[in-house]
Input
Amino acid sequence: MFLFKLAFLNITRNVRRSLITVMAVGVGLAALIFLWGFNDGTIEQMRENVIRLFTGHVQIHARGFEKSLSPELFLAQREKVLIDVAANPAVSRITERVKCEALVGTSENSRGVLLVGVDPERERQITDLEDHIEAGRYLEPDGNREILVGDRLAKKIGLDLDDKVVVMTQAMDGTLAGYAYRVKGIFHTGSQQIDEVSVYITLASAQELLGLGEDVHEIVIQLSDRKGIEPFLEWAKISLGSEKYEVLKWNELIPEVDQWTQWAEAVIGTILIAVMVVIGVSIMNTVLMSIYERTRELGVMMAIGTSPSQIVQLILLETLILEGLGIILGLVGGYLVTIYFGEVGISFHGVEEAFSRSYMSTVVFTKVEWPHVVQSVITLILLTSFIGLYPAWKASRMEPVKAIYYS
Amino acid sequence: MFIKAENISKVFQDRSLPVTALKAVSVDIEEGSFTVLCGPSGSGKTTLLNLLGCLDRPSGGRVFLRGEEISALSQEKLTRYRLRKIGFVFPDFNLIPTLSAVENVEYVLWLQGISGTERRKRAAAICERFGIGALIHRRPRELSRGQQQRVAVARAIVHKPELVLGDELTSNLDHKTGSELMGFLKELNREEKMTFIYATHDPVMIERAGRVIRMQDGEVVSDEKTRVHA
Ligand SMILES: Nc1ncnc2c1ncn2[C@@H]1O[C@H](COP(=O)(O)OP(=O)(O)OP(=O)(O)O)[C@@H](O)[C@H]1O
Ligand SMILES: [Mg+2]
Output
């Protein structure tokens, strides 16, 4: 207690300098917490965007379909799978799709696309394609000669609403199948992949085109909670059998989000270290100054019997108190700011294009992820304690006689 | 013999030039004695005092305390030695400015691992005895020089050391205050059998010592026992 008191009194000697140090720690930590909050918020929204835009939580295919997109790899025993999946309490919604590579052509142009046959009613409950229609309208349930195209594709091959296009693909039996469709809607999702390469028709017309009958290529599942994905995969492995089916989660279908997450965390990790070094140097400077200013006093303390290790303890304690106050300030400040922008959001409407291309939202809602906060605080404590060792060690190595008589 | 210095010398390295502060000095100090070191500035008084007080190690020669060679001890051991057996009064008092008078005194007891209540009781009692009982919660800068000096002496003797060393003990005090302080010290010397060694220029202090060691250019030039009078 006496040591603590002494350390505390020493800190209050130069209140302004101590305050500046506490602020440096606090602001640095708050900035880190906010930065993590920004990143975690962004990534959380990216995840939801990807899920809502296209993938759902989990998809079931015939094994090998995701890679090959072979039309003949339709889901075996479709009805049984549907019944089994629907019976799982974690599942909230299901839809089915037909997917194949196709050629979309006008009289002048043609282009390779991913043809997706969707059930308009069930699809809109899982993905938000409908919200992205910019011109025209969404597919009618029985709109069997209707097609939706992305704005990029429309531009590339010169399509407008109500234009006629021919879609050609390889049918189940290996023959070339082709139908004419009318463009009923043009969508813009912001995802280059979707806007340029994907076209949508109704499930029924896709089945007809390919000669699939009632069969489909893909079952898309939305669970009541994203946390339920892993347990669902476990369940699917046992219940459906892994040799006939591939059950893929959203981040296996679109790995970019995970890659982005890793990249962003590496960047923040680097910033974390830079901030730590700045904070560390600031603390070290303060403590070194304060030691320098009381060389004589420390010399006297050692002369009358204070051991070098007690001097180390004292100086470390002073460092830790400064740091502790800074951490409290940083935690409270960083938390409040992050929470605030989690409510209000930070708008990036000016740079929409860059954001939407990577599935980001243009309004970022920051989010406090405690593991990241804890990680920042622990790194801060470890690194600055380590840095604090130097002044402490230096102080303890002083020669009392020199300190008392020649300083 | 209580303290015995055998041919101790001290050479300081001042930048690149060696400065010989002490040349082969030998002295014996008896237990319970009251000795003064005097001599011109730069004659080596402080240096000798620090060597006798285990604050520094000699460049040559040996120092014994009760037959134990302290000049050979490690820094850590010397620290413990000083804490248990020696009390220091430094020039300009050198109190810890953030601590109150009583806390300055308490500090030594805390270093010795004495519990809080016991510590405060003993520190307050010493301050009382030195006539500063009413001022114990003041910081050093709120005390007069004479009062600060009493706190410094209280700090030096609160743990009842065997040896008390004082450097320029009264040099910043007026005649009356210095004389009063001397009275206290002589009392302690008599009652507690503490051994005192002082370095000073002050004729009043020299006059009241039991033994006067005169130094010049790092050597002892005279060493005489006087008839002790209080
Ligand atoms: N740490 C040191 N580095 C260099 N020279 C030193 C050091 N300590 C003492 N000296 C030198 O040693 C000599 C003796 O110094 P010392 O302090 O013992 O003298 P003193 O008798 O106490 O003088 P004063 O009466 O002025 O206090 C002086 O010449 C001094 O400059
Ligand atoms: Mg001196």
In short: The interface with chain B takes residues 1-2, 6, 9-10, 12-13, 296-297, 300-308, 310, 399-401, 404-405 of chain A (CB under 8 Å). The two ends of chain A are 30 Å apart (CA to CA).
